[in-house]
Amino acid sequence: MSNETKPYAIGIDMGGTNTDIGLVDRDGHCLARKNLPMCRYTEIGAYVADVAAAIHQLVSDRNLTFSEIAGAGIGAPNGNFFTGCIEHASNLAFTGVVPLAKLLGEQLPVPVALTNDANAAALGEKVYGGARNMNDFIVITLGTGVGSGIFADGKLVYGHDGFGGEVGHTILHPGGRLCTCGRKGCLEEYASARGIIQNYREVCEENRREAYIEADCRWLTEAANKGDMMAIRAWEVTAWHLGIGIANAATTLAPEAIFLMGGILNAGRWLIDPLRAIFNEHLLCMQRDKIAILPTQLNANDAAILGAAALVQL
Amino acid sequence: MSNETKPYAIGIDMGGTNTDIGLVDRDGHCLARKNLPMCRYTEIGAYVADVAAAIHQLVSDRNLTFSEIAGAGIGAPNGNFFTGCIEHASNLAFTGVVPLAKLLGEQLPVPVALTNDANAAALGEKVYGGARNMNDFIVITLGTGVGSGIFADGKLVYGHDGFGGEVGHTILHPGGRLCTCGRKGCLEEYASARGIIQNYREVCEENRREAYIEADCRWLTEAANKGDMMAIRAWEVTAWHLGIGIANAATTLAPEAIFLMGGILNAGRWLIDPLRAIFNEHLLCMQRDKIAILPTQLNANDAAILGAAALVQL
């Protein structure tokens, strides 16, 4: 059976808190899954052994053989497709450069590939989601950080060294807010969960209103729903920053659509309505009204697993 | 003879003032050329007839036949590769949408292709210049405007509609200087010839010194050479804006190198030394010291013709 016709793939979503492992079919259904809490692991050997064991279990539970599995794809923070390594991920216990694809490959009879989580998200959208018929699109992941995966002419943009697609770290406000990357003014500092709360605090300060001290993105959405003008304004300000940031990516790449993914989208119209308007306003005239901003068409629970699986099923 | 083995191509560089037409060999030598002043033409039919006549002349002068010519490539302002049209170019007498590739194709026995001048520059660098062995690189053209052509994984990034690669119109300073495109804060307004003079004026104003009223880029370079601190500072400020702008493109695309092209490069070390430092400083840590900023390796006189010819010789 050639790889293109193998009916299943394994998707591994490696995060700071959990690793989720799923068995995925070609239509993008996650048929079964396992979870490994990351707090169990301080060294990579034990982690890899447990991931491999979970995959063997998933395959045998469904009475499958590895000849029906195209491979195992891993979406990991700071994952580099070219090297198969996780490189200096700040939110993992495994420090330095970890050759995870190689280590896991030694314990599985199928190919293993690895990329970062945002690239995996874009692959998932292409293989199983709303970008199936698109060749040029961008996926923006909104969460603790702002990630992105870029497709140009039907291929994921890895760049020369595998680090392509860091739209979240383009500098939107030179000399602006200090980013976790050490530079100033990155888009991420204005459109991540952290950035949004900072936007809210600044809106309150400008309006001489006291900010709710425990505000998070969920609270901000609820507050907006209740008519809290500071919360509504915070979403508008977020839309302004994000709209210009993704308009810049669109000006550079001329995509057909930009897909958004992540829990922050639960803000619904408070974010998406002003975002579409501001994005459009900041495009060059020949692109105006032509580039769609769309929510991901992948199920939120499965998106990360699907993205990882897509890496070996594209 | 297949197209790949045809030894010659025609390159057509269409500008606001002149159209330069050259016969180019596979090694990137411009063997002969013709020039048509644009002031002669108010309607497209006469222009196309003269371009075609000039090409026939170039071919017959060298005792060649069209079977040895791979085709004719056109680099034109607002040229769209996908449609073969010039779309609303503000610096040409021909208004609206002009199907130039089709019109010229009707008068030549070889394929005709068209793209914008910055994309042509990138194609020229790939086929004949310093990017021959690179798959991921960006060419930035610095002149009246700031243009760019992007290669990702060995292919020019046209995007969904042919308008990819407008790095000069990414917004560097939201709400900043009004750009000719109608939006505010585009990189072009800080790093084009026009933008550089504005930088100089602002530097003089900040330092309460009178700006030289007739300052242009050539004067600014000469003044810097003579030790004029306002001129030196103007180049540093330009490098700061341009450095951040192209660092953002590099963060998005992870290229191996960024090539610079255009008369502004005559500023030499006054621009390039601070530019390299500022660019590097604004990259993500894993890319720092890894992305070269290089002057084009195409001869300035022939670069635009070579770029256009590359379109049919890639």
3D architecture notes:
- The structure is a homodimer of 314-residue chains.
- The first copy, chain A, has 314 residues and is an alpha/beta fold.
- Chain A has helices at residues 44-61, 100-105, 117-128, 188-191, 193-206, 217-225, 229-253, 269-281, 303-313, and strands at 8-14, 18-25, 30-37, 69-76, 79-80, 85-87, 97-98, 112-116, 137-142, 146-152, 155-156, 257-261, 292-295.
- Helix content of chain A is 36%, strand content 21%.
- In chain A, strand 5 and strand 6 (85-87) form a beta hairpin.
- The longest helix of chain A is centred in the C-terminal third of the chain and has 25 residues, at 229-253.
- The model of chain A has no long low-confidence stretch (mean pLDDT 95).
- At the A-B interface, strand 10 and helix 7 of A face helix 7 of B.
Please summarize what this structure is.
Chain A is of the alpha/beta class. Helices cover 36% and strands 21% of the residues of chain A.
Provide the descriptors you would attach to this structure in a database record.
five-stranded mixed sheet; alpha/beta; homodimer
Q: How are the SSEs ordered, and which strands pair?
A:
The structure is a homodimer of 314-residue chains.
Chain A: E1 8-14, E2 18-25, E3 30-37, H1 44-61, E4 69-76, E5 79-80, E6 85-87, E7 97-98, H2 100-105, E8 112-116, H3 117-128, E9 137-142, E10 146-152, E11 155-156, H4 188-191, H5 193-206, H6 217-225, H7 229-253, E12 257-261, H8 269-281, E13 292-295, H9 303-313
Parallel strand pairs in A: 1-4, 4-8, 9-12, 12-13
Antiparallel strand pairs in A: 1-2, 2-3, 5-6, 6-7, 9-10, 10-11
